[in-house]
Amino acid sequence: MQRYGQIIKIKKEKIQEYKDLHKNPYKGVCEMIKECNIQNYSIYLFGEYLFAYFEYIGADFEADMAKMARDENTQKWWKVTDPCQISLGYAGQKWLNMEEVFHLD
């Protein structure tokens, strides 16, 4: 199992919309996340930043993320959530992976 922490910025004027969207994700989106070997997934809001945590239990993260990106329901979901976000990385990058510096079970 691999733990991931990710970060992205959110547009101030889109915070409530983003929260509302996540109260009722589109059909199939959560199922695809699980099908792509992601578990224990959470998103936190701190000011204008979103922090995500999840655990990956698969064998090929890149292949699973490509599978998710091909999913029609996920693509529709991203079309409504992406405009709420501002990447902190290079053009075209979304969530940026963070380095884990400490963990205690």
Topology:
Blueprint: E1 2-10, H1 15-23, H2 29-35, E2 38-46, E3 49-56, H3 61-70, H4 72-81, E4 85-86, E5 96-98
Antiparallel strand pairs: 1-3, 1-4, 1-5, 2-3
In short:
This is L-rhamnose mutarotase. The protein has 105 residues and is of the alpha+beta class.
Would you mind describing this structure in some detail?
The chain is an alpha+beta fold and 105 residues long. The chain has one domain (2-98): Alpha-Beta Plaits (2-Layer Sandwich), CATH 3.30.70.1090. 34% of the residues lie in helices and 30% in strands. It contains 4 helices and 5 strands. Strands 1, 2, 3, 4 and 5 form a 5-stranded antiparallel sheet that branches. The two termini are 13 Å apart.
How would you sum up the global shape? globular
* Number of alpha- plus pi-helical segments: 4
Biggest β-sheet strands, sense, barrel: 5 strands, antiparallel
Mean pLDDT: 95
Second CATH tier, the architecture: 2-Layer Sandwich
CATH class: Alpha Beta
Write down the domain tally.
1
**CATH superfamily heading:** Dimeric alpha+beta barrel
Which fold name corresponds to the CATH topology? Answer: Alpha-Beta Plaits
As a whole number of angstroms, the C-alpha radius of gyration is 14 Å
- Straight-line distance between termini: 13 Å
Order of helices and strands: EHHEEHHEE
Protein name: L-rhamnose mutarotase
InterPro entries: Dimeric_a/b-barrel, Rham/fucose_mutarotase
GO molecular function: racemase and epimerase activity, acting on carbohydrates and derivatives
Pfam families: rhaM
Defining key terms:
105 residues, 5-stranded antiparallel β-sheet, 4 helices, Rham/fucose_mutarotase, 5 strands, Alpha-Beta Plaits, globular, alpha+beta
